[in-house]
Design a protein that fits this description.
Elements: E1 9-14, E2 19-24, H1 33-39, E3 48-52, H2 58-66, E4 71-76, H3 79-91, E5 96-100, H4 108-111, E6 115-120, H5 136-142, H6 148-158, E7 159-170, H7 174-181, E8 186-194, E9 201-209, E10 217-218, E11 222-223, H8 239-247
Parallel strand pairs: 3-4, 3-6, 4-5, 6-7, 8-10, 8-11
Antiparallel strand pairs: 1-2, 7-9, 8-9
């Protein structure tokens, strides 16, 4: 894949302009999901974070904007998106190290490092389980060849003791996620995300701890939009979710144990 030309990109604001992201016009473009993922992470200044499959950097750069002073690394398979993540780090004056690599074949120096937090927004669909895209980058982002189990294996190996993994994924893949945590991570918590009150859960955010032993917790659904249906043009996010997306507030879907 060739790198993106400037004419093929747009510059978009996230977190009310606190993060500015160069994105492809026709390729994979970040929505609210990576922002919600980043808002769940209880990172503190001076800690380290690794994002697996960072794309153009939406999640990790949003986390760095909310929590200054993080030591951050992003791993991205696709060279054009890794290049965009580096450009976006410069755009946001963020000290983000971006490594272009397959998460199953990380470079030796990265294999020697451990992190307080790992975050991931893996492809939502198994290969062949979604409509193909004419854009190769978007196809890989939506349904990559790397099994979900490999994402958990990579995360567990890179986490420091008592470090946390946060992952956002489709709700129907939760059984697969829980199986992948087995013998690797514990203290599992799941926060369901529902578009509106009374609607079925479409997405979940999973939190797991390296060496954790606490009992499994399934939290109440986080409702993203106000009202039972979409009744007018424009956004309808709840006040809390809007503060997360616009002001960089923490999501708070995982109460402190």
């Amino acid at each position: 894949m060739t790198l993106f030309a400037d004419d093929d990109l747009t510059l978009n604001d996230f977190l009310g302009g606190r993060v500015r992201l160069w994105q492809p016009r026709g390729g994979y473009r970040a929505g609210v999901d990576p922002i919600l993922l980043a808002a769940c992470v209880p990172a503190k200044q001076g800690q380290s974070v690794l994002e697996l499959g960072c794309g153009a950097g939406a999640a990790v750069l949003s986390l760095m904007a909310r929590v200054p002073g993080l030591q951050a690394v992003g791993v991205e398979l696709q060279a054009p998106y890794a290049d965009l993540a580096r450009r976006n780090a410069v755009e946001n004056a963020a000290r983000l190290e971006v490594i272009q690599a397959d998460l199953t074949e990380m470079p030796p120096d990265l294999k020697q490092r451990q992190f307080d937090h790992v975050i991931a927004n893996p492809p939502y669909y198994r290969t062949g389980a979604h409509s193909p895209s004419v854009d190769q980058g978007r196809s890989v982002a939506l349904g990559g060849d790397t099994a979900l189990d490999h994402w958990f294996d990579a995360a567990a190996k890179r986490l420091a003791p008592k470090g946390y993994l946060h992952m956002i994924q489709k709700a129907d893949r939760l059984p697969e996620m829980l199986t992948s945590c087995s013998r690797r991570l514990g203290s599992i918590e799941v926060a369901p995300l529902s578009a509106r009150s009374g609607r079925k859960t479409e997405l979940v955010i999973l939190r797991a701890k390296k060496g954790g032993r606490a009992a499994f917790q399934l939290h109440a659904p986080l409702i993203l939009h106000a009202g039972e249906r979409h009744e007018k043009d424009g956004e309808s996010y709840t006040r809390h979710v809007s503060s997360v997306l616009r002001d960089g507030a923490a999501l708070g879907c995982f109460p402190d144990r």
